[in-house]
Amino acid sequence: MIEAVNLHKQFRGQRVLQGLNLKLRPSAVTAIMGPSGGGKTTLLKILLGLVQPDSGTILYNQQPLWPTMRSRLLAYLPQHPEASFNPRWKLAQSLQEPFELLRLQPTMGREQHLHSVIKRVGFSPQWLARYPHQLSGGELQRAALARALLGSPQFLLADEPTAMLDPLLSAGVMRMLLALVREQGLGLLLTTHDSGLAAAVADEVLHLQEGRLVSPDHLSLA
């Protein structure tokens, strides 16, 4: 389990997170809702180690989650996959990057591991020879998901992963994510503005309000 305890963060005097607490469990989907600019992405960046909190702690199985451990435990699925790939690289090169950054040495070999992962997410091997602009939004999201899964993370942080997709593609992406939760015990943290989606897929729905996470029963209407 990953636990964020009493996180505080402010930017230019504006408080974004104020005593935030969160628990992420394997094989469970947690959805976080909240307004744009309300701190959802900041929370994800803190969990990923990209932003340091002003105070507070992140624990993994009750031990401090150090950056070296964080890089293998957590992976990120962006809202805008087109902005997360180098436009000058073919997808084959982009999907090799995690092997170098995480120093991955799969027992089955890099190429076989890569093809196993892309097959799992419905990414055609033919797309590896293409540039990002030659793929659709849904295809790029599958590429981003494949890249996230190459390191065999235990938790996936998905930042509004279906916001830029049409309903049909959104349903396909969510089916893949839920299959990973069921079949591999992946813990999924999902940020979304879609209350219907959150209610349909999440084991727990939380709202980010005034810098804290609260359940719908405790949501202030003020």
Record the SSE blueprint:
Layout lengths: L1 E10 L2 E11 L4 E5 L6 H9 L6 E6 L2 E2 L2 H7 E4 L13 H4 L2 H5 L8 H11 L16 H13 L5 E5 L7 H18 L2 E6 L2 H7 L2 E6 L2 E3 L8
Parallel strand pairs: 3-8, 3-9, 6-7, 7-8
Antiparallel strand pairs: 1-2, 1-4, 4-5, 9-10
Question: Brief description of this entry?
Answer:
The protein has 222 residues and is an alpha/beta fold. It has helices spanning 40-48, 67-73, 91-94, 97-101, 110-120, 137-149, 167-184, 195-201; strands at 2-11, 14-24, 29-33, 55-60, 63-64, 74-77, 155-159, 187-192, 204-209, 212-214. The two termini are 33 Å apart.
H and E string: EEEHEEHEHHHHEHEHEE
Number of strands: 10
Describe the main β-sheet briefly.
6 strands, mixed
Number of helices: 8
Rounded Rg: 17 Å
> Largest beta sheet: what is the strand line-up?
6-7-8-3-9-10
Average pLDDT, to the nearest integer?
88
Please give the oligomerization state of what you see.
single chain
Distance between termini? 33 Å
